[in-house]
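Sequence in, structure out.
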Amino acid sequence: MRGRLLNVPAIGRAAGFALVAAAIIAAAVHFEHDGHHAAPPATRLSSPVESLASEMSRCQALAMAAKDDTACEAAWAENRRRFFTYRPAPSAAATPAAAPNSLRQ
């Protein structure tokens, strides 16, 4: 007695592995394709962001002497302001909408 002619659990496992492998390959191809269209990070930065980043890196290089530097204090304050500022998304209630014609009778 060798077993059944069709081993259904083994076929199911093989199909499952094939589906997972196909999903991984499809995701890799998708992300590889999207990566070619994105601009490099250095070209996407605007000048205020670049200047703040360069000032923050300069302050990091100063180490402990940065606590007495007024430019570093200003850069840290701006960094905190940008990080902790809450900007809610515009809602439909905030923008006046025109009333439909059926309600204007």
